[in-house]
């Protein structure tokens, strides 16, 4: 998301959509290291100054694009019970975030983001998905931990190891984290 | 650390020391955004090509400097019992890493680090300190969790929240994480 509020359908929103699309296309065609603001502006059909005014620099633009790509586009699946729901979500989260593309987006989201707003949005996306799962569980009458506990015991270890300590990062590890988090519920 | 092996006392080590010192001095004098390879090389008394040959680019050099700054320079304090030792360590880790300087070093360590080697070293530093604390505890006859459990339950939540979710990140939070990790021991 850009640093300014965007009115859906307005010119501002159209500029954002075309610039984001240009970044994704050019990154796919030429690789991230070939991206420059003039190249992106040309593809998006805007002036470089529009990009600089809106995003400040390339790193901030890449961070905004990354956060958009990290936004979940589906509701967590309903497998009928909390352990199954949270395990499936954690395995999918790990698959997506630990992939080369996922890692690149996480790095971009963190690095062009001096005020931490984009990193905060990534965390909010995970918290929203977990809240859906936990609310569904309590609706079934299941005992459930709170969202922050699942962030601490499942999301944080997965993301920490993706960024800092990737050895042994597999589905079985995600399953153990979920089992430990729910054991405390 | 640089990408190549460095023989202590050799020319390679002297170049690394002078270039790292130049980065620290210039960052303090002019701010990180003013840093350039030619400026750093001039201050270090080497040619820019020496820096490019050794580090590839500025981002990689800043990442190496950051990891050196994040290396602990003291052994964890001995307070006579595992809960006190681990709590004191976690509070200090949080203080250092959550400070503006600490956050900047973490970001640098992650950013100029495509192969993840520097991020891995940051994690190894924490694991080594925790191992000292846990080994001392078992030597006293105390029950202790293993290092990876403390990474998952204390280090990962602290680092995740520093990077993604800083609200409510205080000493009391670090104390709760340690209590929960030791409760399972």
UniProtKB/TrEMBL annotation, chains A, B:
Domain HTH tetR-type: 13-73
Pfam family, one: TetR_N
Key words, A-Z: DNA-binding, Transcription, Transcription regulation
GO molecular function: DNA-binding transcription factor activity; transcription cis-regulatory region binding
Annotated region of DNA binding: 36-55
InterPro entries named among the record's database cross-references: Homeodomain-like_sf, HTH-type_TetR-like_transc_reg, HTH_TetR, Tet_transcr_reg_TetR-rel_C_sf, TetR_C
PROSITE patterns in UniProt: HTH_TETR_2 (PS50977)
Protein name as annotated: TetR family transcriptional regulator
């Amino acid at each position: 998301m850009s640093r300014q509020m965007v009115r859906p359908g307005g010119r501002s929103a159209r500029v954002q959509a075309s610039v984001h699309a240009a970044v994704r296309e050019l990154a796919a065609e030429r690789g991230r290291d070939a991206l420059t603001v003039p190249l992106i502006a040309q593809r998006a059909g805007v002036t470089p100054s529009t990009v600089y005014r809106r995003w400040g620099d390339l790193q901030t633009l890449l961070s905004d694009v990354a956060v958009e790509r990290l936004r979940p586009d589906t509701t967590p699946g309903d497998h009928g019970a909390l352990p199954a729901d949270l395990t499936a979500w954690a395995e999918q989260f790990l698959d997506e975030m630990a992939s080369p593309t996922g890692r690149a987006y996480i790095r971009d989201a963190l690095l062009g983001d001096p005020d931490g707003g984009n990193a905060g949005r990534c965390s909010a996306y995970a918290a929203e998905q977990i809240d859906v799962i936990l609310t569904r569980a309590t609706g079934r009458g299941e005992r459930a931990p709170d969202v922050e506990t699942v962030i601490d015991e499942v999301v944080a270890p997965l993301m920490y190891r993706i960024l800092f300590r990737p050895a042994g990062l597999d589905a079985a590890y995600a399953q153990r984290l979920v089992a430990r988090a729910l054991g405390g519920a």
